[in-house]
Structures are given as C-alpha cells and as structure tokens.
Amino acid sequence: MSVTVLLVDDEELVRAGLRAVLDTQPDIEVVGEAADGATVVPLVRRLRPDVVALDVRMPLLDGIEATRAILRSVADPPGILVITTFEEDAYVYEALRAGANGFLLKRARPAEIVHAVRLVAEGDSLLFPAAVRRLAAGRGDESARRVLERAALTGREREVLRLMAGGLSNAEIAGRLVLGGETVKSHVSSVLAKLGARDRTQAVITAYESGFITPG
To answer: Angle between the 200-209 and 155-165 helix axes, to the nearest 10 degrees?
Structure first.
C-alpha cells in the first residue's frame, strides 16, 4: 500500500520540490497540496493522508496551530512532519510540543526526505537529539516536573527514557541494556503511557522540560 502525503507550504517551489522527490518513489503518493495551514483540517478529513508535511512558518495559520488543529479535530490523525529552514527555530520546538512527530529541513537530501516520510507514516518519531537538546535549553517547566513525578518511572524505565532522549532506536536500546527487543518495546510503551506522551518526541521533551535530563 502507498504512503499518502499532504504537502502544506506557502512557497510553491518548496511544494514542487518535495512532490518531485516523493513522486519518484513507488510506495509514496502525494495526494494534495495547500498553501497555508488554515486549509489543512478540511483537506485532512477529505484526503485522509498518512502524513502531513507542513511548513512551520506560514502567513495565516502556522505549523504549530495547524498541528494542534489536526490533533484536536481529526479522528485517527495522520503523522505530522514539520518542514523548516532552520533546525533551531523556536517554532519547531513549539510544533514538537504541540504533537508533531518530527521535523525535516528544507535543505534535506532526497533520501532523507523519503526516509522521514516513511518513518512518520509507520508511526515513529523523527528525532534529532542535538537539535532538541539545544532547543530545550533553559525551558524548565513546572507542569512537566509534576508529570514526571506522577509517572513514578521505574529505574529501568528511567534508563530507557535517557537513551530515547539520546536518539537511540529500540534495537539500539536493547543492545545497550542487553535486553530483548520486545522487552524494550514494552518499556518504551510504558514510559509513553505514564508520561501521557503521544510519541517518543513528546516523551523526550518532557524529560528535558522536567529537568530529568539537563541540556548541555
């Protein structure tokens, strides 16, 4: 089955470039385009894409608010991939906090774009640990601290969260902790559930904002 994608960017050239890259893939289909976040929710409801790739900065409704609108208004929402020019843009961080699954740089190579779309379509997060660490610097949050306290993570779950924040995959975590793959998957699911996190990105942001992990 094809991975279906909705492109949302106010720059026509950016949309054309992304479409040109994605249309070369036999398993990916661009099903629609939009020039602003204000039109995203109706398009998502009508087209039911697997992935929405949207610009973080748009004139009427930016990627942050568009992300919130999708997750608030659409049942079984698609994966959301934020497109940005600068990885350290504060808008990117807010979009990730709002529930985006990851971000993609406009200067990314074609293979990176394709990989990002496939990854998000599979329900995974596209996490850039160094960028998230820099963006999280100085963003302590009392509510995040309370979330972490209430979560009462076990010692093993805390280890897993630290490795998740380092960008390690489940397989890499399993190798580092000498655990089975299914065991790690279970720990990751438990961490997400206890933190009330939609995905790994949300869990990692909570880890930084709570002070559990200190940027540096």
So the answer is: 100
